[in-house]
Amino acid sequence: MKELVEVIVKALVDDPESVEITERQDGRTTVIEIRVADSDMGKVIGRQGRIARAIRAMVKAAAAKDDKKVVVDIAG
């Protein structure tokens, strides 16, 4: 899942070198945390959170295929 999020986020931002994706287990849930440069935060979140919702939906669909629960967190 981490690789999927990384590919998506790096394609969206102007500074792909500053993208940091961390993955950790929290019980039965996998938490994926996204960190980007402050100037790219709006590109990852999108207007009214549309891009963030789309990223979460894609990850949720991919995780459901493997019968897993994944939460995507965008760290500000």
Structural summary, described in words:
- The protein is of the alpha+beta class and 76 residues long.
- The chain has one domain: K homology (KH) domain (GMP Synthetase, Chain A, domain 3).
- Helices cover 42% and strands 26% of the residues.
- The chain has helices at residues 2-12, 41-45, 50-65, and strands at residues 20-26, 29-35, 69-74.
- It has a 3-stranded mixed beta sheet with strand order 1-2-3.
- It is globular, with a radius of gyration of 12 Å.
- The protein starts with a helix and ends with a strand.
- The model has no long low-confidence stretch (mean pLDDT 94).
Annotate the secondary structure layout:
Elements: H1 2-12, E1 20-26, E2 29-35, H2 41-45, H3 50-65, E3 69-74
Number of helical stretches of at least 4 residues: 3
**Inertia-based shape:** globular
Specify the CATH architecture: 2-Layer Sandwich
Radius of gyration: 12 Å
